[in-house]
Design brief:
mainly alpha; 0% strand; elongated
Length: 110
């Protein structure tokens, strides 16, 4: 009986993570930072349900790192980044990261 309860808890966590991974694309640069935070949180939730040695976990870790870096670039000092202005790149970056998250969601939830 305990085994079934543990299994049910795991599938519930996975179902919640699947729901969280259903992130909408940002329509504006102003919404992009909010979307990136959702992406990071959703990927973290998915990682919590996966074994550390699962190949999908490695892909989620990489995607989460990229989303965190994009968010940091957007909220950080653009002069320090020595790159194109984050406000000019945040929307396409957020859209790319949402697409990556959706791809991972398909593999994780199906």
């Amino acid at each position: 009986m305990t085994l079934l309860a543990g299994c049910g808890g795991s599938s519930d966590g996975r179902a919640k993570a699947c729901s969280a991974l259903d992130v909408r694309t940002a329509a504006t640069a102003e919404a992009a930072s909010r979307v990136l935070r959702q992406v990071v949180d959703a990927q973290r939730a998915a990682l919590e349900t996966l074994d550390a040695d699962d190949p999908l976990a490695a892909r989620f870790r990489g995607a989460k790192t990229r989303a965190e870096q994009a968010l940091a670039a957007f909220t950080g000092d653009p002069l320090r980044s020595r790159t194109m202005s984050p406000t000019a790149t945040i929307l396409p970056t957020a859209r790319r990261l949402v697409a990556e998250t959706r791809s991972l969601r398909t593999q994780f939830c199906d």
